[in-house]
Amino acid sequence: MENVLYPLKFTPQFKERVWGGQRLRSLFNKNFDPLPNCGESWELSSLPGNVSVVSNGFLEGNNLAEIIEVYMGDLVGETVYEKHGNNFPLLFKLLDTVGDLSIQVHPDDAVARIRHQSNGKNEMWYVIHAEADAEIIAGFKKDVAKEEYLFHLGNNKLKELLNVYNVQQGDVFYIPAGQVHAIGSGIALCEIQQSSDITYRLYDWDRPGSDGKPRKLHVEEALDVIDFKAKDNRVSYESQPNEAVKLASSPYFTTNLLDFNIIRELDYFFVDSFVVYVCMDGACRIEFPGGEEFLKKGETILLPASIKNLVLLPEGQCRLLETYII
User: Which domain-ending residue is among 156, 189, 222?
Assistant: First the structure.
């Protein structure tokens, strides 16, 4: 079916991070040589300088921005294209933490567009692997005054004000813009977020960056961004075998968990959007009009909006994160 859109795979982009490690190799067979500490695999991105390149089919070698420019609404959905144009609105990552990430916060759309000509950053995390003592920090335990926050920050006690969660595989967190947060060490997760790379660091554990110098903090920039209200950011859900379970629903994206071991026939007539699958475990074949693709653990695939019917054929148990925009 020459020149007919099909499910697209992309070449991962690996990122060296001061807190990264080797787990993406052992979990997902990612080959990120020669990086010694790979913290992130950018699976699907349209950020300038980091635009994903197609790795399968006749569009192989073309980048995401180029194919959106050609296929427009057929690829991303008419509504999505009208709003975002040639800019793919989401960013998909796999993360591996050997060290703690900084305590940080992201601005919303309004602030990010004024200051950075960028989207804001609302995001969610699905925990793929967690060591026994792994922690995630997210949101304040109680409503906090700005003065109280600054006192604790200045005395390296900010963590005392924040929710600290012990985490395990399958835990989900939704982190809206304005929520103070940090991912602790010993965790591998999938991050689904708005297409943005704007981060304000509040505290970085007094450690040096890769150049031996302290990384820049953004204390002043963050003051009018932070939501100082108490918030529980962990998502409660019950896994339902062979049924879609909603994990996140926002104006920015909807993400469901598909955990199945039987053939699933799906239709997407209810969404005017692309669909992205990230395979968390197992593998499956994707049959669509005109062909099929194979998806295995650690891989990501973009289903064009023009494909409304498909069949998922699992090889044993398969677990996918399914994301689209409503």
Answer: 222
